[in-house]
Amino acid sequence: MAEENQNEETEQKKESENQTAEAEKTEAAEGEAKAETAEEKAEEKKELTPEEKIEQLEKENADLKDQLLRRAADFDNYRKRMMKEKQETFDYANANLLGDLLDSLDNFDRTLDAAATAKDVKSVTDGIKMINKSLVKMLEDKYGLVSFGKEGDEFNPDEHEAIGRTEDEKAKKETLMQVYLKGYKLKEKIIRHAKVMVKVPKA
Questions:
Q1: Which helix or strand (DSSP H or E) is residue 180 part of?
Q2: Is the entire prediction scored with pTM above 0.70?
Q3: Whole-angstrom Cα distance, residue 165 to residue 169?
Q4: Distance (Å, rounded) from C-alpha 47 to C-alpha 44?
Q5: Does residue 131 have a pLDDT over 90?
């Protein structure tokens, strides 16, 4: 009797194990089926109709156009801002120089007023010389403006513009005989050549 009960328990245990195994196989099969269904749905979702593809491309194209227009507008604004700043720099580049010249202009006005009633010409001349000296010093010290071209200097075609030549038996080289207009350099750059009469050795 005990042996029969034991056999029966063994069979029930085997049957239970078989049922568990079957259940696991069923679950695994169902899981695989669900995964396949999900993959199929994903593939179906990825495959767009021609109309959907066109719509998607049109949307992407509209986005790109919008980005392009925004960047073009930003660049145009930047260009206009740079042009405005450049123009302002050009317009007011000489503001400091003109401000410094105002003192000399004021002094010239005072000298002209004094000249109208002056009885001594020398005092007027001295006043003009003082203004000239002060103006030249300011331009030299503050702006690097230097004049050149004196009688007796050696002729230099890079600095002097000869408006005439005269032969001289005593001349050993070409020199400046007369200076009609002084030349000027701004630091090392010539901004006006000196206009001169040149004395040359007699041939």
A1: strand 175-181
A2: no
A3: 13
A4: 5
A5: yes
